[in-house]
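From: lab user (bench 3)
To: helpdesk
Subject: output format question, protein + pyridoxal-5'-phosphate

Hello, I'm new to running complex predictions and I'm not sure whether the block I got back is the full result or only part of it. Here's what I submitted:
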Amino acid sequence: MKWSSWIEVNLDSLAHNYKQLVSLTTAELCPVVKSDAYGHGAPVVVRFLHRLGAKLFAVSSVEEALTIRELSQAPLLLLTPPLHEQIPLVIKHRLIPTIESAEQVSLFERAADKHFPLPVHLKVDTGLGRLGIKPNDAVALGERIARSAKLQLAGVFTHFAEGSSSSRTARQLRTFLAVKEAFAQAGLNNLIWHAANSAAFCLGPHTHLDMVRIGTLLYGQGKGADELQLKETWALYAKVISVRRISAGSSVGYGGTYKAHRDMLVGVVPIGYSDGFTMEPQSTPAVQTARVVSRIVKGEKPQAFVDGQPVAVVGKAAMNLTILDLSAVPHPSPGLPVRLIARRASINRDLPKVYLKDGKPYCTWWNGRLYHPSAQPFDRTHSNLYDRVRML
Ligand SMILES: Cc1ncc(COP(=O)(O)O)c(C=O)c1O
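Helpdesk reply: Thanks, we reran it on our side. This is the complete output you should expect:
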């Protein structure tokens, strides 16, 4: 591996999670691939899961959808209504927009071209208070879309405000089912009704309806992940670029906030807060001890690992560099890989993503291109670039 920092995505685990979740519901599973598929690289994830049978994917914006179009023509549902000026792009790239007002219907009709009728989903606000038409106005909007020669009403959805079983979730579901009933009475049938995200999926089949929109669980995370035997799909790595000895009493990092309380061996990894790796600065031994205690009490997990063993971050994580205490690591030297814990959805999207299949590097997605796993960074000779269509 020639990258200095990279993300590893395990396609076998992703396939396992997808199949496992599909086996637990009679509803269609719509993978949510917004925020670069929660940091997994949306273009490759969509291409891969489309081959596994996923029929519809959910993204947040037109921009995200167009990035995916680099690799896949899979049907993409825009979870948010597009801006007026983006409507021509939605039509051109056959994206499935969310509609929440009659005005949007008119705008789409005016932009009509030979690609119509365009499938759309109608969003109902059952209590989140963010996007969607009010439940009482939903049937009228549904009828307006159904009358349009340019649009085809394909689905109706809502989104829950809470991640657990609560009276609020139950109320939202009841409201949504009442809307569904009203649509049926108005003769609006054969629609895909969907509401559940990962948390609602775990509440039971009564929330699943025709389709479930799943992100967190698909990527092996969230409350139900262990119970559902889902696997970890994502890991962030960086290699140590420098190792040094420091003596007790010397300070480390910006602001001198960290004072070594013993002789130490520290290493630097080329990753920092500009990559999305944020660390609380550690300061005096007393504060460090207090943090360790608080971590134990709160059950917080360590932030960095070498060969599965936790190593502490010392000082402040800087923009691009982080310092680690490698004193307990036998013979650390530059090139040593370190696994780091980070919030995957907010990780730097420019980091190369190395996809593993059958336990081996399979391909790398970087800078909008698909590379052979042994490719040198920046080497764009033909042999290093994969034929996208053949590979995935
Ligand atoms: C509208 C909508 N549906 C579904 C999801 C997927 O949620 P989760 O990651 O909990 O499965 C999201 C993500 O935030 C969302 O915004």
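A quick orientation on your result: Residues 25-227 form a domain with the TIM Barrel fold (CATH 3.20.20.10). Let us know if anything else is unclear.
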